[in-house]
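step: validate -> pass
step: tokenize input -> pass
step: predict -> running
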Amino acid sequence: MNTLVTGFNGKVGFEVARKLKGKGMRISCAVRNVEKAKQKYGNEYEFVALDFSDPTTFESALKNINKIFLMYLLVIKLSLNYFYIKQKTMASIILFIYL
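step: predict -> pass
step: emit ->
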């Protein structure tokens, strides 16, 4: 199982990633700029590029993801519309949590 954690650069998303990683869970941290995140955190976390204003980043960010922790309420409609269109992708997601 692999959980995608959005909002990693914020307080809540970072804490969620830290706690899940501490429990030994496999996580991918969604960030707009992977290189910048790697400069700050090194190889401590696995990063994937995800920009909610760019739907072309969605499919690769969701590859091999089974759970999602979604922080951005303002983009939920956009995200859910994309996921609805990509039902095959959604079929592999068993848990979707948003705040």
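step: describe -> The mean pLDDT is 81.
step: cleanup -> pass
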